[in-house]
Backbone:
């Protein structure tokens, strides 16, 4: 154990000496991730990172959220973020996790479709402007639940059943007493006794559940393998001085992310088109990229290449970036990252990438192929 | 603070004297869950992926007036919704009957305990 630690320590020190060091709190591989299909296209297009996103789970929650934030549909809120999945607003009592392991194209589109809606103040105090963004995201193909995930869910099923038994056992004596009282009062043939029985059991369970711990249930793993294809689009309108009739189209974004995920290897493509209205003209930027990833328990290696082109008159030259990245998890959630390659502006100072840094990522998955 | 919420319901199911009853439990909304039942003083715990046609007193005794307590422990693993759902299907009585319940987990990865009591009449 000590030898292993020493090897790690010496390796880290040697890299620190060899390379310029940087540290950051977010993913150190953002160049590729920044252009892939976003989870919430509306917020990405608004350049907004809302502190609170409303995620209604039912049609009633959705209606209440919209009506309350728009004061009964009479005004546009200046800071609002909402995201919901139309399919999951309804209850699906027959859809077990086993039935969701593989999906047809239509099932995939339905089950992964989300709509995002956001507003933000994008002007200043002298020229207030409210930005309104709408976004849609779905997966045409979402692969299959991995064998690792299936095994994890089967193990959790047993743990949940065992915990249910522990809960029942803790209530057994009290329940049998309540059962006896119920039977003595005539049982199901006595409506008043039935009502009292329901209330007594509810009180018993409500009290017990408040202190019932399920920390013994292991973390679940949910990943999918095979072919994945995500598509998203969204647009932004500007409303100067918050005047409804002054609304103008400001931005459009389209993303597509095909990927193939094996157990350890994955290959991810990305395409993004962003169109911004600048004055009377439209400036469109197109990105395309590819990333090859290998992940092991404590490290990951990836090679990424991204190209960018601009389509308007007097636009900058096309750009491209290529980088190899090696990540090593020093301890849980702390990653040492080394990057080598060429940044977008090859002729500029600092475009040769040779960096070493620490990043903090507490997610169980360092590389997420399907989001 | 516990990240488990619970639902308690009492239902009446009409049985046919001398005919055994069977229980099937389906966990919906692509979530995961396990079930235990208290029957005749004994706790029976699910030891497979799902509860399908679990025989309640296969001896053919008269079940009228007896009580079956079921506890299904569901974990919300579906990142798309916090809604959870459980359907209990009882068969072998006067008619096959589905009892479907739904409740939202308090958080992603949270738990919902469905405590459903069936009174056989």
Residues:
């Amino acid at each position: 154990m000590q030898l292993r630690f020493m090897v790690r320590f010496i390796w880290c020190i040697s890299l620190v000496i060899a390379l310029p060091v940087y540290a950051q709190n977010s993913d150190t591989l953002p160049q590729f991730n920044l252009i892939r299909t976003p989870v919430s296209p509306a917020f990405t297009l608004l350049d907004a990172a809302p502190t609170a996103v409303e995620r209604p789970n039912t049609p009633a929650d959705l209606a209440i959220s919209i009506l309350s934030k728009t004061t009964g549909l009479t005004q546009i809120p200046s800071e609002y973020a909402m995201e919901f999945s139309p399919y999951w607003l309804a209850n699906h009592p027959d859809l077990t996790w086993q039935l969701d392991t593989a999906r047809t194209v239509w099932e995939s589109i339905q089950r992964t479709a989300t709509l995002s809606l956001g507003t933000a103040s994008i002007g200043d105090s002298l020229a207030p402007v409210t930005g309104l963004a709408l976004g849609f995201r779905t997966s045409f193909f979402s692969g299959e639940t991995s064998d690792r995930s299936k095994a994890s869910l089967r193990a959790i099923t047993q743990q949940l059943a065992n915990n249910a038994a522990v809960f029942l056992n803790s209530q057994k004596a009290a329940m049998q007493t309540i059962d006896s009282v119920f039977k003595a009062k005539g049982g199901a043939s006595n409506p008043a006794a039935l009502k009292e029985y329901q209330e007594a059991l509810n009180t018993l369970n409500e009290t017990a559940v408040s202190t019932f711990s399920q920390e013994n249930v292991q973390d679940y793993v949910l990943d999918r393998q095979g072919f994945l294809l995500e598509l998203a689009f969204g647009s932004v309108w500007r409303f100067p001085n918050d005047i409804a009739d002054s609304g103008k189209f400001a931005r459009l974004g389209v993303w597509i992310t095909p990927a193939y995920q094996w157990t350890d290897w994955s290959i991810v493509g990305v395409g993004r088109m962003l169109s911004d209205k600048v004055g009377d003209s439209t400036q469109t930027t197109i990105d395309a990229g590819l990333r090859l990833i290998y992940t092991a328990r404590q490290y990951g290696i990836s090679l990424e290449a991204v190209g960018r082109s601009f389509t308007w008159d007097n636009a900058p030259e096309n750009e491209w970036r290529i980088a190899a990245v090696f990540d090593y998890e020093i301890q849980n959630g702390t990653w040492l990252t080394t990057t080598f390659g060429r940044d977008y502006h090859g002729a500029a100072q600092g475009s040769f990438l040779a960096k070493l840094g620490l990043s903090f990522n507490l997610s169980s998955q360092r590389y997420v192929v399907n989001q | 603070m516990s990240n488990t919420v619970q639902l308690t319901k009492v239902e009446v199911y009409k049985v046919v004297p001398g005919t055994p009853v069977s229980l099937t439990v389906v966990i919906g909304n692509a979530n995961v869950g396990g079930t235990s039942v208290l029957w005749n003083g004994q706790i029976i715990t699910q030891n497979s992926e799902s509860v399908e046609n679990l025989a309640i007193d296969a001896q053919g005794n008269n079940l009228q007036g007896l009580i079956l307590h079921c506890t299904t422990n569901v974990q919300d693993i579906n990142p798309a919704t916090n809604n959870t759902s459980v359907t209990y299907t009882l068969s072998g009585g006067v008619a096959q009957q589905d009892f479907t319940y739904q409740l939202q987990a308090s958080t992603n990865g949270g738990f919902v305990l469905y405590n459903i009591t069936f009174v056989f009449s």
Notes: The helical segments of chain A are 2-18, 30-35, 41-45, 59-69, 105-112, 147-184, 191-209. DSSP finds seven helices and twelve strands in chain A. Residues 149-209 of chain A form one domain. The longest helix of chain A spans residues 147-184.
